[in-house]
Amino acid sequence: MGKKKLQSSFFGGYFTFSKAQLFNKYIIVSVAFLCWMLFFDKNSFPANYKLGKSIDKLETAKADYEKKIVQARIEKKDIEENKEKYAREKYLMHRDNEDVIVIEKSKK
């Protein structure tokens, strides 16, 4: 069987292509486009992967800072309510005629 020739009706039949040639051109263009989009484009796969990793790091850092903010607010409230107790426990301050004993709770 011979190859059938396709004629382009748009150009009035000036160009003739076989089905294999058309198929190969589309495949080549598709693969080139896919490679371009995956590796060379601004929004390529490696760039998105790096951005995703940095977003994860930033979200964990944000969660840590939020925990620290909560702790700082608790400490601020404690300081405002009882300054003397805070100074004695945190900085081990005491008067000349007394001893300060600090008992820490174990964290479990």
Topology (elements, then pairings):
Layout: E1 5-7, E2 16-18, H1 19-40, H2 45-81, H3 83-91
Antiparallel strand pairs: 1-2
Key features of this structure:
two-stranded antiparallel ribbon; 108 residues; mainly alpha
What does this structure look like?
This protein is mainly alpha-helical and about 110 residues long. It folds into 2 domains: about 1-40; about 45-108, no CATH class. It is built from 3 helices and 2 strands, in the order ββααα. It has helices spanning about 20-40, 45-80, 85-90; strands at about 5, 15-20. Strands 1-2 form a two-stranded antiparallel sheet. α2 (about 45-80) crosses α3. The radius of gyration is 36 Å and the shape is rod-shaped. The N and C termini lie far apart (about 80 Å). The mean pLDDT is about 80.
Strand percent estimate: 5-15%
Helix content: 55-70%
Counted beta strands: 2
Multimerization state: single chain
N- to C-terminal distance: 82 Å
Mean pLDDT: 80
What does the largest sheet look like? 2 strands, antiparallel
Compose a concise summary of this entry:
This protein has 108 residues and is mainly alpha-helical. 63% of the residues lie in helices and 6% in strands.
